[in-house]
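User: Glycolipid transfer protein domain-containing protein. Structure?
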Amino acid sequence: MAPFLDTVKSFADVPITDAGVDTAAFLDASTGVLGLFDILGSTAFAPVTSDIKGNISKVRARYEATPAQSATLEELVKNEQGEKKRTATEGLMWLLRGLAFTCAALLTAQADNKVELSTAFTRGYEQTLKKFHGILVKGIFTVAMKACPYRKDFYAKLAADPTGGPPAPESKVSEELDKWLAALDLIVKRMEAFYEKNGYNKGF
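Assistant: Predicted structure:
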């Protein structure tokens, strides 16, 4: 078995066409993020992983119920408008916010190899989710940031071969993570602009 990034679907492999972001591939790649938080290893991140998992389920339920109208994220959202609850629209909105937080944190870590994860995730939180949270949730995230593992331990786990073989070279791990993050950042920004332009983020 290969190191972690080879075991999950990369956002770089999520097709994007004129019609939009492929829903099924996006959900598969998003599920891989949960494994990333497993590597972070702290129970303090449980509220984050629970939120991401729950929102993936909401979007997936809509996709499975209306596959012909939900092939892309954009079509899925458009075709839910006019309904009373818009569960998948809200779920995807919060999923994108959780992914934006993860992406911003890891981009910060990748940009400077001296930055510890606690600092990177704190900066990522301030750039993304913090403005949407009340005092109680901000407190939960503050605890989670402080519980981040040391940078060297996290990257060692990303590189480790679960079968006991030699770890992947640091350069390969960094290269794959850069591709994963660049593609995720592109999707998040594309979808955030789509929500904002059409007012799909209103009413929640």
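The chain has one domain: 19-151+164-195. The chain has a mean pLDDT of 91.
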